Amino acid sequence: MDTTDPAITFDADGVSNHFWHAQELIGRLVKPGASGEVELQQLAEQIREEGKDKPYDCVMGVSGGVDSSYVGVMARDLGLRPLAVHLDNGWNTDTAVSNIHSLLEKLDIDLYTHVVNWDQFRDLQRSVFLSSLPNIEAVTDHAIKALLYQTADRFGLRYVLSGSNANTEAILPEAWGYNADDSRILLAAKKRFGDPSIGIDTYPHMTFFDYFTYIYVKKIRFIPLLNYGDFNKARALDIMKQRIGYVPYARKHGESRFTRFFQEYYLPEKYGFDKRKAHLSSLIASGQMNREEALAELEKPLYDPISKMIDVEYCTRKLGFSESDWAEIMATPIAYPEDFPNNQRLIGSAVKVKGVLRKAAALTTRGKS
């Protein structure tokens, strides 16, 4: 990590605040080794018991990526009966579709696919591009999370299996984005820059009240399976190649052509944000890579010139931007969440309260044992 994060600080030894934050996060969330496996088995038993009279006992998101796919493998090995949920936002690659099909067929998992009307999704993405807010992926990330909550609620389930993983995702500067749970900021960008004749009725989203209700009233929990035991991405990839015929991507999030365009072209060239620095730093903090290896990885170009030209032309044309439109977008100064109506503080407070309550419940349980 470096000063492309304007909030970064370094201690007397030149170690950034991100490293110490990652150490705290990993220490709190990751349940390694045999004890983590035992805790995971106990959690799986609880999920199975609560869902024994239902067609499914949990839901899980699938994108065709390594993490979400391996969650499916783990779920079936734990004897769980997940319903797989996929958001089709119009940006899937053929490889991603093939990986999802292989995963679900080999593991005998049912799939629910929600297709967002392309005009509606494109209008939202265009609006955030025109707003100059950096985190365009929040449009997809919010829809996925809302869809998972909605699907779990529809089936009366309390557990959503998640592919998030503190060991590989512990570091991400706040200045590079904003909380994707907040639909208010996205809809504010649409109101200011979108087409008023285009609705959002097929776009899964949730208000802060919805978010609060899912967490505190319906008590729906996201379970990060990859935080239990000793998850290693390289080993997981080998297992999936053998068991389900998984086809790997050249880069992280290669399952979406848009994500590649966003992370490897748009963010670095417009804002100077190279998300590889966060991803690689997380691997360093969790002991899965050393700094020299990460620096060598950063020396590799994000794009070869021909692929970059093809992807930029394809994505901007699909989004409906002319060359002059796109030049203006790339030249517009960065915007910040505070420039738009948002619920960032409310959501942050809700997350903190949830953490305090969960910690109190854990202490109470230990006290009784």
TrEMBL record:
Leader sequence residues? none
Q: Is Ligase among this UniProt entry's keywords?
A: yes
**InterPro entries, alphabetically?**
N-acetyl_sugar_amidoTrfase, NAD/GMP_synthase, Rossmann-like_a/b/a_fold
Task: Give GO BP annotations, semicolon-separated.
Answer: purine nucleotide metabolic process
Ranges of residues in domain NAD/GMP synthase: 56-113
Q: Which Pfam families match?
A: NAD_synthase
Supply the name of the protein: Putative LPS biosynthesis protein WbpG
Query: What species is this protein from?
Result: Erythrobacter litoralis (strain HTCC2594)
